[in-house]
Amino acid sequence: ELKAEYEHKLEQLAKDKEEKLARDKKTFTDEIAHLRAEAKMQKDQNEKNEAVSQRDSLSKDNAAFE
Asked: What residue spans carry the region label Disordered (predicted)?
């Protein structure tokens, strides 16, 4: 009886640990996806800012020639 109870508790602890690892893995994966999305948005914004800067510079150059 005591042995069966002990084995049941061990099985429950193992199950709990597996569930926690699965949750932690999902959280980690979700965080990576979030950070990648933020990095892509930042990269896109930087590229947009660079394009605007180049356009403004060309506009000034064109105005100087007119």
From this structure: 38-66
Q: Look up residue 63 and give its two tokens.
A: 């105005």
Question: Which amino acid would we find at residue 20?
Answer: K
Give residue-wise pLDDT tens across range 45-60: 999 999 999 999 999 8
Concatenating the DSSP letter of every residue in 2-66 gives HHHHHHHHHHHHHHHHHHHHHHHHHHHHHHHHHHHHHHHHHHHHHHHHHHHHHHHHHHHHHHHH-
pTM above 0.85, yes or no: no
